[in-house]
Amino acid sequence: MSVSQVIEFIGNHYILCGIFIALLFLLAVTEVRRGGRSINSAQLTSLINSEQAVIVDIRPSKDFGTGHITDSHNIPFEKFETRMTELNKYKADKVIIVVDAQGQHSGEVARTLKKAGYQVAKLGAGISGWKNDGLPLVKKKVKA
C-alpha cells in the first residue's frame, strides 16, 4: 500500500480514522492510569537524590546480582504478591519505583501496588534504559 493510497483512505473514511485515533488515545491513557506513571532515568535520579523514592527491582535474583541500581530492593516478579508487605514501611512517605529488565512487567506490579494504596511509578525503559543512559549499576556482593 502506497502513501497516496493511505491518504486517499483517510480522506474517504475520515470519521472512521478519527474514531480509531481517539480509541488509541483512550487506551493509552487508561493503561498509564492503571499502571502508574512512567518515569525516565533522569527523573529517577532526582527522586533518589532527594530520598523520596524506594526502588523495587522485580527481576529474578540472578539478574539482580549481575547489576542493579544502588539501594534497590529485589523482590522477584514471581514472588511479588507474597512479599509485597516488605514495602509497608514506605507506604506513607515514599514513592515506590518499580524496575524490571525492559519495562514489560513493571506495569502489572505498579497496578498491584497502586490498588494497595502505595504511591507508585515505574522506570519506563527498565534497567536496559538505565544502562543505555550510561548510569551505574552495582553488583550484589557475594558473601565469602
The number of domains is 2
How much helix, percentage-wise, in residues? 40-55%
Structural class: alpha/beta
Output the CATH homologous superfamily of the largest domain: Rhodanese-like domain
Low-confidence stretches: none
Choose one word for the global shape.
elongated
Report the major sheet: 5 strands, parallel
- Determine the mean pLDDT: 88
Query: In angstroms, what is the radius of gyration?
Result: 19 Å
Count of DSSP strands: 5
Helical region count? 7
- SS strand fraction: 5-15%
Order of helices and strands: HHEHEHEHEHEH
CATH class of the largest domain: Alpha Beta
Strand order of the largest sheet: 1-5-4-2-3
CATH overall fold name of the largest domain: Oxidized Rhodanese, domain 1
CATH architecture of the largest domain: 3-Layer(aba) Sandwich
Distance between the termini: 63 Å
Report what the structure shows.
By secondary structure, the protein is α/β, with parallel strands linked by helices. The chain folds into 2 domains: 30 residues; 97 residues, Rhodanese-like domain (Oxidized Rhodanese, domain 1, 3-Layer(aba) Sandwich), CATH 3.40.250.10. It has a 5-stranded parallel β-sheet with strand order 1-5-4-2-3. The longest helix has 22 residues.
